[in-house]
Write a structure and sequence with these properties.
about 375 residues; alpha+beta; about 20% strand
């Protein structure tokens, strides 16, 4: 008998989660002491359902337990919003952070088994606004509060990207402060926007053997050292070797500066420490940065990080990590099925067959309606 006839689509979707490893960490952190019903495992499953179905409140989660299939998946028939709130504030975010990293490791096994060249890693952040009245600990302006998700995204190809490392801070944290945390692989090519421009750090990254391409600020002072010739059909306007900065604050290393125009005719300047690539390749690498913008857009539209289920820093971090875990589970099923279907379509199918046998969901991936076993 096909093993997929024995589990639901939801069961198949969450199957990459290593329950044994999760249980060991829960025990080590004494997370479920005195817990009778809402264990950490049950909490994670319920919150993943909430992410998938975009529940906006703990009350909606509590009400969802009228569904007998959900009851079976969790192992209990009801739970109050207050119990959910307590658990949400008690779960150590380290548990969910490690669960996220474990799923990332499983994605990487698919990625690197293809023997591809130097991976492209995109760094950026996104601010998630909060109500200052309820989240005073996250204040960053007189009338605003928020948290910031600093992210490193791996670009596999135009169809598949995945988050590899995440740091959650209050919104007042400057992006540049997280650059050294997010750059730790000398076998990668990093891409980031002009918000991360820091001449001293660019020198340090170059000296330490890290490769990058970044957009340069418009007011940056440059001193040209050499101009490279360009082929006649090249869309890059200029390609130069330069020092960046004034005499008082200047890079010690020379860098490569490329000028291009975007689709609206605006002039863009890219800085990189790669001199071995063609100018078009550098330009194309930076243009891949759009992938992280689309990723943040996907998160805000298709999982629940607009309405937060708790007001503590712990609750906020837990919910963001659950959103990232949700995305990773989608990527894993896409890779397992070797599918080119979009994550949005995969998610829609899953929602419609959540408690049906897994084969009902999986047969949609190849577009054929196979006969039921």
């Amino acid at each position: 008998m096909d093993k997929n006839t024995l589990i639901s689509s939801f069961g198949k979707w969450v199957s990459p989660i290593n329950i044994q490893k999760l249980s060991e960490q829960v025990k080590e952190l004494k997370q479920d002491y005195y817990t009778k019903k809402l264990t950490t495992e049950a909490y994670i499953k319920l919150l993943l359902v909430a992410q998938l179905l975009e529940f906006t409140s703990l009350e909606e989660m509590s009400d969802a337990l009228v569904d007998e299939d959900l009851q079976k998946a969790l192992g209990f028939e009801s739970i109050s919003a207050s119990q959910l709130s307590r658990k949400n504030n008690q779960i150590n975010p380290l548990i969910l952070a490690n669960l996220f990293l474990d799923l990332v490791w499983k994605i990487q096994r698919y990625h690197y088994q293809n023997g591809k060249n130097m991976p492209l890693k995109i760094i950026d952040s996104s601010t998630l606004p909060l109500n200052l009245t309820h989240y005073k600990w996250a204040k960053f302006r007189k009338t605003k509060a928020g948290v910031k998700l600093h992210l490193r995204l791996v670009f596999m190809d135009k169809d598949t990207v995945y988050p590899e490392k995440a740091v959650i801070t209050t919104a007042k944290e400057h992006d540049r402060n997280q650059l050294e945390v997010l750059v730790d692989d000398q076998e990668a090519m990093y891409v980031f926007d002009r918000g991360y421009v820091d001449y001293e750090r660019f020198d340090r990254m170059t000296d330490d053997g890290y490769f990058f391409v970044s957009r340069l600020k418009k007011n940056a002072v440059i001193r040209e050292v050499y101009t490279f010739s360009l082929p006649d059909d090249c869309h890059v306007l200029s390609d130069k070797m330069v020092y960046i900065g004034t005499t008082q604050n200047r890079t010690e290393n020379v860098f490569r500066l490329l000028e291009v125009t975007d689709t609206k005719g605006n002039l863009l300047r890219f800085i990189t420490n790669r001199f071995d690539l063609k100018p078009e390749e550098i330009s194309d690498i930076y243009r891949s940065r759009w992938a992280i913008e689309l990723f943040f857009k996907w998160l805000k539209q298709h999982v629940e990080i607009k309405h937060f289920y708790g007001m503590s820093e712990t609750a906020i971090q837990n919910q963001i990590f659950l959103a990232l875990i949700t995305y990773c589970l989608h990527v894993l099923i896409q890779l397992e099925m070797k599918s080119k279907k979009s994550l949005l379509r995969i998610t829609r199918w899953l929602k419609r067959s959540l408690w049906k046998p897994a084969y009902v969901w999986l047969r949609k991936f190849d577009g054929r309606a196979r006969a039921s076993p």
